[in-house]
Amino acid sequence: MQYEIKELPEVRVAYLRYKGPFGPAVGEFWKEVFTPWQQAMGLTGKVTYGVAQDDPSTTPAAECRYDACVAVSADYPIQPPAKESHLPAGHYAVAPFKGTGADVPAAWGEFFGQLSAEGKIDEGVCFERYPADYGMDPDTGVFAAELCIPVKV
């Protein structure tokens, strides 16, 4: 998998949490819960992030947590049900992804495997980064994002 090492800044985010098995249900959470909330809060046209809080290979499916996030300014008043978090600054391996929601787990598996074999993975949060002009092809379900994994430099 092709990737670049990038130094990313810290990002303040507002997020809504999904809890349960990863897979198609995460896409439904974005569509039915997060995106309507994002629109209602006037937060469209901003970079969004998907953060898996648990490793599904070691966490029971019902206990897996995933945060759908949107970048917000330092003075944006985050209100319930949203919560505040910060994606830390640091060096990340950033790989482009283009595919469907069903393709995401395999892409993460390939990327983790490659970086593990190269001995580059560092402690920290991994996330999907979606552009401010994010769009999904309504016919095929294909979308683009970046997969970001913290790395040692």
UniProtKB/TrEMBL annotation:
Coiled-coil residues are none
Which InterPro entries has this protein been placed in? AraC_E-bd, GyrI-like, Reg_factor_effector_dom_sf, SmbC-like
Q: What residues does the AraC effector-binding domain cover?
A: 1-152
Protein name as it appears in the record: AraC family transcriptional regulator
